[in-house]
Design a protein that fits this description.
131 residues, seven-stranded antiparallel sheet, 2 helices, 26% helix, 42% strand, globular, START-like_dom_sf, SRPBCC family protein
Length: 131
């Protein structure tokens, strides 16, 4: 698995950030403009990435104020798992977003840049929302 990570520190309590991230309806606010046709419930989201693929994701696991794991609910172009990990530090919350993808060598060359950008974009958008 190829792993893409992005970490931010947010000066808010972990509980509010967890509540936001645990509802997939809110994740549309974290997506870049290339993500289109967004449809979601609290537990599932489907969307298309402009000129690329359609994805349908669902929450696999929630650990209150600690972790949210999101996986495809339909066959994706490649195996992928998204994980949000939260930790309350003394005066801020540490938020780590990880995308783990099973990429062959060709896909790795094509997708590594966009997947890292996606991870960074989502954590930065989250930090902006909680400013």
């Amino acid at each position: 698995m190829t792993v893409f990570e992005s970490i931010v520190h947010i000066n808010k309590p972990v509980s509010g950030i967890y509540q936001f991230l645990s509802d997939l309806n809110n994740h549309q606010q974290l997506m870049p403009p290339q993500v289109q046709d967004w449809r979601s419930t609290a537990d599932e989201a489907s969307f298309s990435i402009q000129n690329m693929a359609k994805l349908r994701l669902g929450v696999q696991n929630r650990v209150e104020n600690t972790e949210i794991t999101i996986v495809p609910t339909e066959q994706p172009p490649f195996k992928v798992m998204l994980k949000w990990q939260l930790a309350q530090e003394s005066d801020y919350t540490s938020v780590q977003f990880t995308i783990a993808a099973e990429l062959n060598m060709m896909m790795k060359m094509l997708a590594s840049g966009p997947l890292q950008k996606l991870a960074d974009h989502q954590t930065q958008a989250l930090a902006e929302l909680f400013r």
